[in-house]
Specification:
Belongs to the intradiol ring-cleavage dioxygenase family. With about 220 residues, the chain is mostly beta strands. It has one helix spanning about 5-10; strands at about 15, 20-25, 25, 30-35, 70-75, 90-95, 120, 130-135, 140, 155, 160-165, 170-180, 195-200, 200-205, 205-210, 215. The structure holds fe (ii) ion.
Length: about 220
């Protein structure tokens, strides 16, 4: 039974935590219910490292990129948590394994330099997206960021930034976090968005996780 079928069977929900680790050759569990009910995806800050105009690609990291391989996939859904949204624009950006972005100039959103570990893609006819990358590294909040001064020095948990938009829905900007990260609890953004924390499943090549994104209808 796929996710849409599950939703149709009355298990309407926003996204799933893939808690099934492969042990002894068998997948122990399928999707685990993350929370009851259908909730639209909560937005989060854009952050200082967003840059407009990333290239269209879904493989953010090439084979030479240091770090553990990570695949994140899911479906962009309308507010009923079951209607897929095709051709939604999904922007993703992240730090490298060492916690560095391709620009270390916060707030330079229109920097047109070389893009690295950033991309844009459209969801397919079933509303699905898939990105291939590496695990992002943690990094401290830089000092003297306007509005964020009091958070300077806080270690951000590993995360990937998303910005998702489609013409009939309200865009959402969020950060995706990973269960078990000890820095989530003290991070003001991660701790406030438990629905945007997913568990990862390990396989021989790296880690994988599923994350569905539910947009608010604009009309
Ligand atoms: Fe970030």
């Amino acid at each position: 039974m796929n996710k849409q079928q599950q939703a149709g069977a009355g298990l309407s929900r926003r996204h799933f935590l893939y808690g099934g680790f492969i042990l002894g050759g068998g997948l122990l569990a399928g999707p685990v219910l993350a929370g009851q009910g259908c909730r639209t995806t909560a937005g989060d800050i854009l952050g200082p490292y967003y840059r407009f105009g990333a290239p269209f690609l879904s493989k953010l990291a090439g084979p030479d990129e240091p770090g553990e391989r990570l695949v994140v996939s899911g479906t962009v859904l309308s507010a009923d948590c079951r209607t897929p949204i095709p051709n939604a624009l999904v922007e993703v950006w992240q730090a490298n394994g060492a916690g560095l972005y391709d620009t270390q100039t916060p707030g330079n959103f229109t920097d047109k330099g070389n893009f690295h570990l950033r991309g844009m893609l459209y969801t397919d006819a079933q509303g699905r997206y898939r990105i291939e990358t590496v695990m992002p590294g943690r990094y401290p909040v830089p000092p003297n960021l306007p509005g964020l001064e009091k958070y300077a020095g806080i270690t951000r948990p590993a995360h990937i930034h998303f910005r998702v938009m489609e013409s009939l829905h309200v865009p959402v900007t969020l950060q995706l976090y990973f269960a078990g990260d000890p820095y989530i609890a003290k991070d003001p953004w991660a701790s406030a968005h438990p629905d945007n924390v997913i568990a990862l499943e390990a396989d021989g090549e790296g880690r994988r996780g599923g994350f569905d994104i539910v947009l608010v209808r604009g009309v």
